[in-house]
Write a structure and sequence with these properties.
Elements (H helix, E strand, L loop, with lengths): L2 E16 L3 E8 L3 E7 L19 E7 L4 E8 L8 H17 L7 H15 L4 H15 L21 E5 L3 E4 L10 E3 H8 L6 H19 L5 H16 L1
Parallel strand pairs: 3-5
Antiparallel strand pairs: 1-2, 1-4, 2-3, 4-5, 6-7, 6-8
Length: 244
């Protein structure tokens, strides 16, 4: 069956060269989730698509096609592009890579789309980045069906308490420890879990614990292939430090 969709709100997640002058583009759309489509001639200097196929640019996408791979038939800007710089740019690229790697093609994620858009807008401002990223990661896992329950112990069903230690099992939950061993990478303080739940990552320890937790939770689904955005960010930081 030939699918024809017109003027679908979308963002570019990832592009890669195709044939001599075209691009294969992963879009994130409000009604169809991730859509992979060929933008014919997009690499030509005078292409009508060239200026629009950039990250963080709200678009209206029209596409058609019978199989998984669609063809872009029309593309226009719906709003001004969101401008991200420095570490905020890397954070935006990180969100895009998560979506490109984890979303299924042609599955609706309207709530996640809106949260993604709100997160990009917030990153453009002066909001603290860590809480924004952790909230997005939690929301993404929930939308994919792998929600992290920060409310209670998965075994006893008792509420998570501040002064206890918990072992985290990806896709299962938290189990309270009966001893005081806290050296394991998958062990977390109850106080830090509550801080993440309440989006109150006000100290370095809580923010670091939240980042470690979400890496474990996402890593269970990303597999062993590293995220390019993390590698690029790490190399850039190393280069800047060497120049100082």
């Amino acid at each position: 069956m030939d699918t024809r969709v017109s003027l679908q709100p979308a963002y570019v997640l990832h592009t890669r060269p195709f044939q001599n002058t075209s691009l294969i583009v992963d879009f994130f759309t409000i009604d169809y989730g991730r859509v992979t489509a060929v933008a014919k001639g997009a690499r030509r200097q005078g292409s009508k698509y060239r200026s629009h196929l950039q990250p963080f640019h709200p678009l209206l996408l029209s596409f058609s096609g019978r199989g998984e791979m669609k063809t872009v038939t029309k593309l226009e800007a719906s709003l001004a592009a969101i401008r991200l710089q420095g570490e905020r740019l890397f954070s935006g690229l990180y969100l895009n890579e998560l979506l490109s790697r984890l979303l299924q093609n042609h599955e609706e994620y309207a709530g996640l789309y809106r949260h993604y858009q709100q997160t990009l807008i917030a990153l453009q401002g002066e909001s603290e980045m860590e809480p924004l990223l952790r909230r997005f990661e939690l929301n993404l896992l929930g939308e994919l069906g792998y929600a992290v329950d920060l409310e209670r112990d998965v075994r006893s069903q008792e509420a998570i308490v501040e002064d206890a230690l918990y072992h985290f099992l990806p896709d299962v939950g938290f189990e309270r420890l009966t001893n005081s061993s806290g050296n394991d990478n998958s062990v977390f303080e109850g106080a830090h879990l509550i801080a993440l739940r309440e989006n109150a990552l006000v100290n370095v320890e809580a923010a670091a614990a939240a980042k470690r937790l979400l890496r474990l939770a996402l890593g269970a689904h990303l597999g062993e292939k590293p995220l390019n955005s993390r590698l690029l960010f790490g190399r850039t930081r190393t280069t800047l430090a060497a120049k100082q």
